[in-house]
Amino acid sequence: MGEQVPKTMQPSNTFIVCGLGSLGQSCVQAICDFGGSVRAIEQAQPLTWEIPELPVLLDKLVIGDCRQARILEEAGIYECRAILLVTSNERVNLETAFAVRSLNPDIRLIVRSGKQNLNDLLQEHLGDFIAFEPTQLPAPTFALAALSDEIVGFFTLDDQLVRVVQKQIDQSHKWAEVRIIYELNTRNRQILIHKSAQFSDQETTNTLFNRLELDTRIRTGDTLTYIELADSDLLERSQANQKQDGSQKFDSNLIWTNFQANYINFQQWLSESRTRMAAALCGVVVIVLTIVGTILFRLFYPGISLHDSFFTTISLILSGYGNIYSAIVSTDPGPQWLRFFGLILTIIGTGLLGLLYGLLTESLLSARFQFLSRRPPIPETDYVILVGLGRVGQKVAKLLQEFSQPLVAITNLEIDPTLLPNIPVIFGNINSALEKISLTKAKSLVAVTDDEMLNLELAMMTHAVNPQSRLVIRTFEQSFSKNLAQLLPYAEVLCANSISAEAFAAAAYGENVISLFRLHNQTVLVTEYFVETGDTLNGLILAQVKYGYGVVPVLHQEPHSTAKFMPSDDTRLNHSDRLVVLATIKSLQVIEVGTLIEPNWYVYIEKPMNKEAIFEGANVIVRVCNCSMPRAREVMENLPNRLNFALYKLQAQRLVRELLKAQVTGYIII
Questions:
Q1: What topology is assigned to 14-132 in CATH?
Q2: Confidence class of residue 478 from pLDDT cuts 50, 70 and 90?
Q3: Architecture of the CATH domain 602-669
Q4: Residue 385 above 90 pLDDT?
Q5: Per-residue buried b or exposed e for 34-65, using 16+ beta carbons within 10 Å of the residue's own CB
Q6: Is the pLDDT of residue 312 over 80?
């Protein structure tokens, strides 16, 4: 294998956490799991601990105001690598950030803040500064948990949507009994996890990724989890079936059919409102009177044209009787009954105009008071019930809308009428509101209120009525979440602070966490690296990064080049390269330390099929194994021979396949 990774002086492994609420305690635990040491600052001595072992995990606890320089110095602000400002008061967090930067210009600032515009400005002025809104970080996880769809995660890289899909292979699937796992890895897709139907109780893993048997054939009942590139429009699947061809040939029967359909629709539209019916009746009366009046005035007053007859009738309807007949009487008074008819036109017209003005005023006033609060009706079936429209609930609602998932929201809070206008919302007491919805027709219930007990109560009520519905429960305390998950195996219990804390901990170590999602009860962090000279990634090929650190490379970009998705395992990392990977918190920890998993598989090369294969085989060994050309040629010139350096199993399997393409036979051994 290649040369050992050079190690540089490791930065300080000590961190400060300001604020020991639920999120702060979860951050302490996450950093300790990462292998760091933590000091904490809290306003007052905590009376109870959500995480019982936390006092043992802390190296030091300083009681005081974290905004004061004296308190920060006592906590050791000068020798710490990063500080996490995670109190529940965003103003305190930002004030502390300024105080910390004035004391230590090099420390990394991880701040809890939801003020996005201000965060962007502060990043420019404070330097090494990252801000997260912990209530919104896990929102995609809640949204995806509500869907019985196959998508378990999604994120965007360079304006390209990337999604993580979990699919059970049925008998009709095109991969079933035909394709081998390694054949499914393409430029747009990569297999992450394979769970065989024959071994349904098999462990998916300590490292989560890269425990595949790439030469395995896909069988009916197997479950595959893979990452793939998708179109940037999340709604493409639902919209594809809605596209219609607008070009149609002229057909008289079709025109008549459309006319009948439009007439029926118009009748239905009128019948929906008494106001519309009254307005339509007034309109019909005015039209009839206008036609009759025009004809009569044209017949009995030959001196005026049809055009003038029409406008005379309209003027009488609009209360112009005096003006019209004062001009007519002076020339030709006409029959008395016609004058009486003109008076009737004026009286009827005045009444109809008054009625129309009243209806118009009523409609305007009604629209003024109902326009903002008008929402669509509750879906008929297969909808998600979203309880709670705080910041998390609003984010979840928007994501579900992007997936074209019907939903209805319940909240006991007053919200802006313009917020989520396309979603039906039931206001008031949540328990009472839930009774107004048919739980038997619900697909899922997502309870994301700030009250854990209420979330639990709603989930159990829904399960009692509809045992088939998916249940997603938002919790805040880790111990409560673990106990609840054991007692309610049918529910998805998600501890929001625990999920967010892993992103905070990763950021504290300098990792750029782009997104996160849950997979097999673990949090997967989408993390971005920029390779530097001498770090634990420089000089490695992606196969070593992938199998040695237990991550999945998703994107690689060389300086001044176009980014490549699903990069080849042969890609070598050099200074300034950009790399985005899927990783668990444990994988990030081993990358931080630079401890590669030791390879223990070998390849025995038998023989080349022709002389040219010796040269091609050496090139393959250099490319796949990251070794020097002289070393590869030495092996190929002394066949049969075993490679004198170990490889990772999947890397060795790939080497055998690539050698066979180069007309060289071989097999793997341990």
A1: Rossmann fold (3.40.50)
A2: confident
A3: 2-Layer Sandwich (3.30)
A4: yes
A5: bebbbbbbbbeebeeebbeebeebbeebbeee
A6: no
